[in-house]
Amino acid sequence: MAGDAAFVRTALTASQPPPIPAGPLHGIVRGLFFGPLNIALTLFSIFLIALLVLPLMRFLFVDAAWQGTDSTACLGVSGACWPFIWAKLGQFIYGVYPEALRWRPDLVFALGALLLAPLLVQSAPFKRLNAFLFFAIYPVAGFVLLTGGNLDLKHFLLGRLLAWDIFGSATAAGLHLSFWSDYGASALLLAALAAAGATLLRARARNAALAVLAVLAVFAVVGAMLLAVDLDLGLAPVETRSWGGLMVTLVVAVTGIVASLPLGIMLALGRRSEMPIIRLLSVIFIEFWRGVPLITVLFFATYMLPLFLPTGVSVDGLLRVLIGVALFSAAYMAEVVRGGLQAIPRGQYEAAQALGLGYWRTMIEVVLPQALAIVIPGIVNNFIGLFKDTTLVLIVAIFDLLGQLRAAFADPAWAGPTTLYTGFAFAGIIYFVFCYGMSRYAHLLELRAAAVQR
User: Fold this and answer.
1) Percent over 90 (pLDDT), the chain
2) pLDDT of residue 233
3) How many structural domains does the chain have?
4) Do 206 and 306 lie in a common domain?
5) How many CA atoms lie within 13 A of 299 on its CB side?
6) Cα(372)–Cα(233) distance, integer angstroms
7) Cβ density class 281-316: b for 16+ within 10 Å, e for less
8) What is the DSSP annotation of 144-209?
9) Which of 29, 156, 240, 270 has an alpha carbon within 20 to 30 A of 411's alpha carbon?
């Protein structure tokens, strides 16, 4: 064994330079100016900001006109014409919705914000009740407030036929349905909603699927009964042709978002099903809707679908668009969810089977929570794309935010050199705020999911 080998240092080491101070400012400076490449990229970015962002800020704020009642306030001004936005703000938000009744959309917006905020906060209590109010009660209340609730349901698709088949023979036999007053029908609908809510609130995880089926059954029975009555809640009716602006944009986007996720999940499960018929039908549905552009869907729903309906039966134009958008988005959502399902290891299924869990409990409690957490970016990407695609409804004569904006440009009282640019800048800001908000909340969900997995 060599005697000269030493494992303990016998001399002091030389003094080392002090450590580089750490901190957020130091990290930013080091990241921007560390090395020639970073310095070149930083200088190029500063040049782009000076070239693009600074002139935009000057146009929107520094050189802009802020007060006035007509286009003369913007003459000689090289910046944005904000008086045009203030004068047309009601049109941009409500369209041609009657001005005296605009408190109803305002109430719908307020209720939506109040019910949505607790759902987005993780620590908020009564999540199940809040979800039932938002997804079951709020759509009905919003529909009644926006339309007035004065609907002859017998004129909806198959409504007239069902009403005649169910109640026509009874009337012919001398049985008069005098008890079907408008208030009685409304009370029945509210009772059904209350029963459905109570069922959901009492349901536990092991019978969640049964609770959902019970709720659907209640709605189906009540819907079939209401097809024979004329519902009148005493509110002034407002046709959907009077809707417009941001209100239509939000209605189309929220309906598509809320409906596409559960439909997409069911389609994804159906495409992975071991039952050939269910799998084939899911594949046909997904590939059909993904194989046609959204513009084609909107044209078919608006102009072609009425040709296939029975004589005397009509479906509201906006309702047809909502159904088309929801089905179109659900097909894309199904593929996103299917990607998450394929990422779940086989061991998760086997562990659930070892615990004695059935198919639905395995999916609801084990597989889907993990799969949806994996594909949060893809889901939100679909939502953001759908929100921006709502502008396509203009081609079927439904005036969303951009449609109302283009209609306002035709007003000769506001003809000016910067009016056009101001309007599109205003619309761009609104779309950016909504899309960026969805993106940031999705990022928070990703961080929460990662923390749970750790």
Assistant:
1) 27
2) 64
3) 3
4) no
5) 6
6) 40
7) ebeebbeebeeeebeebbeebbeebeeeeeeeeebb
8) HHHH-S-EEGGGSTTHHHHHHHHHHHHHHTT---TT--HHHHHHHHHHHHHHHHHHHHH--GGGHH
9) 240
**By three-state DSSP, how is residue 70 classified?**
coil
Does 298 lie in the same domain as 437?
yes
For residue range 92-123, what is the model confidence (pLDDT) as tens digits?
Answer: 999 999 999 999 999 999 999 999 988 888 88
- Taking the complete model, does pTM exceed 0.85, yes or no? no
Bridge partners (DSSP) listed for residue 81: 65
Task: Say which CATH number the domain at 304 has.
Answer: 1.10.3720.10
Mean pLDDT, rounded, for 242-259? 92
Rounded percentage of the chain residues whose pLDDT exceeds 70: 77
Task: Tell me if 27 is assigned to some domain.
Answer: no
Tell me what the mean pLDDT of segment 40-66 comes to: 88
Question: Using N-to-C axis directions, what is the helix angle for 276-290 and 245-271, rounded to 10°?
Answer: 140
Match 């998450």 to its residue by tokens.
340
The domain containing residue 53 runs over which residues? 35-74
Region of 35 (left: φ > 0; alpha: ψ -120 to 50; beta: rest) is left
Residue 276 and residue 343 in one domain: yes
Give pLDDT, residue 398.
87
Q: Which residues contact 229 (CB under 8 A, 6 or more apart)?
A: 153, 154, 180, 182, 185
HEC-encoded secondary structure of 365-405? HHHHHHHHHHCHHHHHHHHHHHHHHHHHHHHHCCCEHHHHH
Provide the residue type at 353 as one letter. Q
pLDDT tens by residue, 422-442 = 999 999 999 999 999 999 998
| The last residue of a domain, from among 216, 237, 258 | 237
Residue pair 42/33 in contact by the 8 Å Cβ criterion: yes
**Domain end point (choices 198, 219, 237):** 237
Q: Does some domain include residue 310?
A: yes
- Check whether residue 276 and residue 178 sit in a common domain: no
Q: Rounded mean pLDDT of the chain?
A: 79
Check if the beta carbon of residue 304 is closer than 8 Å to that of residue 292.
no
